[in-house]
Amino acid sequence: MSEKLQKVLARAGQQSRRDIEMLIAQGRVSVDGKIALLGDRIDVNIMPQIRVDSRLISIKPVADVLCRVLVYYKPEGELCTRRDPDGRPTVFDRLPRLNHARWVVVGRLDMNTSGLLLFTTDGELANRMMHPSCKIEREYAVRIFGKVDAYKLHQLTCGVQLKDGPAAFRRLIFKGGKRLNQWYNVTLTEGRNREVRRLWEAVRIRVSRLIRVRYGDIVLPTWLPRGSWTELPLDYINYLRHKVHLLPELSVTKLPPGRARTQ
């Protein structure tokens, strides 16, 4: 049986399928010593030697892949990258270390945005949860600075033209505030780069604070401190897998004691 190379690597926890496709396009992935191309398929019964940036990747059979999911409260100031050349803190610095697996982030947040981040060891789950076709909602609490009238609110919910195409909030709810500082909860079903901020900027309103409070059915726990994580139980992992049409996980190895942790 053959599978697309990016799907096999995603399942092995080597980032999301979209990120892996970029690595392949950049010539950073090889199969048995040959540079891989987009569209390449591999025989999963033979399992050739696959390398990413010359690093040998451990590929397990489908039955041996354990899907785990973390909920992380990202503080402002952390980058959603594994390493930063300038030495700035990243979201991966605080996560528990794994043997023969890697955490894949589900939907990045920019450095100045805080709130809910999901991580999984299953790149295919991450890919499906981020894919626009699944229409998984992302909800944000937004503090804006500026004068908002009915016409601007109408634009934000009916659609404005951004550089990468039209965009709109699926829902926009006023949550309170005084004078020019006001809070709204907004909902999207896609994750374009800085989309929430760019939508408000399109109607000449500045976002002064942005917090992701929900991703799909997962809500940021009120008891979880910033910079801490907690692991989802098996039944909830399988609920997520069912929502994106993946087979259930049969078992999961729990992390060491201390489900929530800070550094």
From TrEMBL:
It catalyses: uridine(2605) in 23S rRNA = pseudouridine(2605) in 23S rRNA. It is an enzyme of class 5 (isomerase). Residues 3-67 form the RNA-binding S4 domain. One of its GO terms (molecular function) is RNA binding. Keywords: Isomerase, RNA-binding, rRNA processing. GO terms for biological process: enzyme-directed rRNA pseudouridine synthesis. Its EC number is 5.4.99.-. Belongs to the pseudouridine synthase RsuA family. This is Pseudouridine synthase. It comes from Candidatus Hoaglandella endobia.
